[in-house]
């Protein structure tokens, strides 16, 4: 202090000015540096301190996925290997369609029974599918997306077929023969292998093709910005990663506003132009088109003869999860599906139960079904949007509680208050559980257009919560609804292609394998039914799904 006291007064002022100018220059330089690097800046809102991170590749690696532990990384790697789709051809530009798969030229043939005699219940029937291109030439590689079913409309019978890719342009569709009478084979080309190449490319290069919006409000100021888990780093970003699950979510920071002023989230839309390969996605030509039979498309099935063994015409070991007969779903190799045809039967099953439902609108269908089927189940007005929830219904007399809540982002929905964005894993951690508790979730439709790693991580988070729930309350019934096939146009193909859904279906089954959980295989229940495919299956299919759910919960009493 003595040194400074000896300086002239003007010298002190000069020194202070010099320090101020120096600090100002540093500040300006920081501003300029920020403007140069604005495309790589991430702002972390309260309660976490602001930090800056550098993305590895601003073109294709801008999806900020949840980090995995070494064990989870290995699991993901093995999982991806187990569900890997065959390699598909690269696409020339301009596209040369003549070499692409053509359902009109392709055929399937029912192979003869391996042993002489009549087809009988319990046999495995195999149809050989041969794919040809638009010039009528046989394809030499695999990767086409095919669906197959065996059905009898008169009997209300149907079962999904298992398709095997021989990687040489031919495929096998294998069916279990499960009813007497006629059984007709149906094979559909969902996508040619060339279309899979484009679906893959778009998922890598355009993972943000569906985008979301959030509204921010502070005093009289309101702004809207784009949000996503895949957000191109072109401006400052607010990080809304969930602190409990680590599930990531980001929004561009609104100008002159804090990140903690966000009030809502909603579907922003989709990019208009995603592909120059439109000809690969033509409804009625090469997308969701039946493949004709080269001979008879049906066989007659007889009762199983005593002393005769079943004939397995294929090396396929997997069995269908069930089949329809007289319009009723019958499960195979698991819980017997009972018929809950009256409100009293459903009420008796759910008496004293708390049912928690989480997921997308296909799960909300179940809530709506129960709400309509049970006259004494009264829905409470929580002043929430019907499509979002939370929704709640009570039957006081029978002590039945049913609740639905949508899953956390991504959500292609109407505006949702930010405070209502709840992750399934967090919700499960808040469930006490027990023998009177049923937890049901279905999460798939809003994830098809994202990298599959994003979906795998979400399922891993949910699985961890399920494990904790079953550990503290082993009597809790946990049921998972899978995704299902659906119709779509070219724009829909890049959002909810059946190829995307099928890959995620395989991931879901692998991740929850071995846990004490039950699956409602919506994929096969929609595929095997005679009704048209739909994102939201029609009431007869929903009724069968509810019967499967209730059969997991209890056996019918009094109806």
From TrEMBL:
The keyword Cell division does not apply. The chain crosses the membrane at residues 12-29. Residues 329-554 form the NXPE C-terminal domain. It comes from the Eukaryota. The keyword ATP-binding does not apply. Pfam families: Neurexophilin, NXPE4_C. Keywords: Membrane, Transmembrane, Transmembrane helix. GO terms for biological process: nervous system development. Belongs to the NXPE family. This is NXPE C-terminal domain-containing protein. It comes from Oreochromis aureus. The lineage of its organism: Eukaryota, Metazoa, Chordata, Craniata, Vertebrata. The gene is NXPE3.
